Automatic annotation (TrEMBL):
Binding site for Mg(2+) 1: E69, D87, L89
Keyword Transferase: no
InterPro entries, alphabetized: FBPase_C_dom, FBPase_class-1, FBPase_N, FBPtase
Species: Natrarchaeobaculum sulfurireducens
Predominant cellular place of this UniProt entry's protein: cytoplasm
The EC number(s) this enzyme carries: 3.1.3.11
NCBIfam families: PRK09293.3-3
Cofactor: Mg(2+)
UniProt region (Disordered), positions on chain: 23-45
Binding-site residues for substrate, renumbered to this chain: D90, G91, S92, S93, Y197, K227
Domain Fructose-1-6-bisphosphatase class 1 C-terminal residue range list: 160-284
Cellular compartments annotated: Cytoplasm
Protein name: Fructose-1,6-bisphosphatase class 1
Length: 285
């Protein structure tokens, strides 16, 4: 007889914690006097959500490592098992203006830093008008609504709509490399496309999953690896978008194929409908 599945346990724990994280944002909207390992100012809520998830996820049997965007070192648990990488509060600079944020997670079956091909599951929580979760495992995506500790399935076998509608590209426009700029002009000139950019990756990527389209935080002049982090952001969203029938790219290959060298390394991120990503790779070549 097989025991409980640690992957299910990790996902259930994150889903249960989401309502608490959401409630805990009240009164924690200020910054602390610290930077995360990527040099970004930390909000009180970033540190708090990281500690809450570390505490809960490292006590699960079958979790071997916990890593987060908000701490330099990987936490090693005793024993073997899955390695969980999280961005506890994605887009936390939106706290000040009270706009959308998320929690991102990737569950790898190799020690971190690991390639995206080692992911067995990934997902994100979106703190919007309601709290939702998108979760990918075994090549299929499920959407949930989260209320209190409860998780309700809203849709199974989620796929990106075939007709792309929205696009959102991060980084300052003057910092975009010429080829990416040309691509962006092409995308925006299509009368079927609308701009959506909210400054929280999960909010923007969730729109792409819902309406079809493309989200990118590309390589920039002066920042050839872009801004987003491979272990905590690039890989988990690439895994989910690919499971939903879309594509991911670092500019020339699937993000899941990128060789990891450091737990906090960055990667240019482009995710969305297959034909839009194929075209992007042709333009960037
Ligand atoms: O995690 C980094 C992040 O907050 C993403 O959620 C978001 O897409 C991006 O940074 C926003 O960056 P910028 O402020 O450069 O648009
Ligand atoms: Mg983030």
């Amino acid at each position: 007889m097989s025991g409980p599945d640690p992957v299910d346990d990790v996902v259930a724990t994150i889903a249960r914690s989401a309502s608490e994280i959401r409630q805990g944002l009240v009164g924690r909207r200020g910054d602390v006097d610290e930077e995360n390992p990527s040099g970004e100012t930390q909000a009180e809520a970033d540190v708090w959500a990281d500690e809450l998830l570390e505490d809960r996820l490292t006590s699960i049997d079958g979790v071997a490592q916990y890593a987060s965007e908000e701490r330099s070192e990987i936490v090693d648990c005793e024993g073997e098992g899955y390695c969980v990488a999280v961005d506890p509060l994605d887009g936390s600079s939106n706290l000040k203006s009270n706009n959308t944020m998320g929690t991102v997670f990737g569950i790898y079956d190799e020690p971190l830093p690991a390639p995206g091909t080692a992911l067995v599951a990934s997902g994100w929580i979106l703190y919007g008008p309601i709290t939702t979760m998108a979760y990918a495992r075994d090549g299929s995506v499920t959407r949930y609504e989260l209320t209190g500790g409860e998780r309700t399935v809203v849709e199974e076998n989620v796929t990106i709509p075939a007709d792309p509608l929205v696009y959102g590209f991060g980084g300052r426009v003057p910092d975009w490399p010429e080829e990416f700029d040309a691509y962006a002009r092409e995308v925006e000139s299509d009368p079927g496309h609308k701009l959506r950019y909210g400054g929280a990756m999960i909010g923007d990527v969730n729109q792409v999953l819902t309406y079809g389209g493309i989200f990118a935080y590309p390589a920039l002049e002066g920042a050839p690896r872009g801004k987003l982090r491979l272990q905590f952001e690039g890989n988990p969203i690439a895994y989910l978008i690919e499971a939903a029938g879309g594509r991911s790219s670092d500019g020339s290959q699937s993000i899941l194929e990128v060789e990891p060298t450091d737990v906090h390394q960055r990667v240019p991120v482009h995710v969305g409908n297959t034909e839009l990503i194929d075209r992007l790779e042709t333009v960037l070549e």
